[in-house]
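For the sake of clarity, the format in which proteins appear in this thesis is described at this point. Each number in the token line that follows is a code from a learned vocabulary of backbone shapes. One such record is shown here in full, so that the layout can be seen directly:
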Amino acid sequence: MTTDEPAQQAGTGIRLRAASARDAEEITQVFLDSRADALPYLPRVHSDEDTLAWITHVVLPGSTVWVAESEAEEVLGFASLDADGHELDQLYLRPGSLRRGIGSQLLALVKEASGGELSLYTFQRNTAARAFYERHGFTAESYDDGSRNEEKEPDVLYRWSAPQAPPAAAPDPAR
């Protein structure tokens, strides 16, 4: 799937598609709601208006962003891949959309677009996210004290590499 083609996921009623500028408000709301629900310990370092401006003017134009939407065209989640194509910058789901395979679908799309190498940061205390990424083949590589992020919350760097195909067998010269 290219980033311009929508994909209906069989039997789920969920459609994955490239995000556009018109999605900025819904993406922002998913981001804010998800963080409030899953990460209530995080300090709010930006207003809702500043977060919308960041999504609108930084995230959407500066990275590859996909949304997962319902049949009613409600944005249920989104994922963004950095401009270099090797770091998952964001993956957030609307709180009522967890445990439906939506995050897995978005992550599979990002993995495919990454060219086989992907990294991401998540907060150390976000045990649900850490378990999710580990189930999907990511390995914790390093831990940080929080000095690298605005929230000053300790985080962990995860990496994933696509499995390598086994080398082709050499032809049998006796045949």
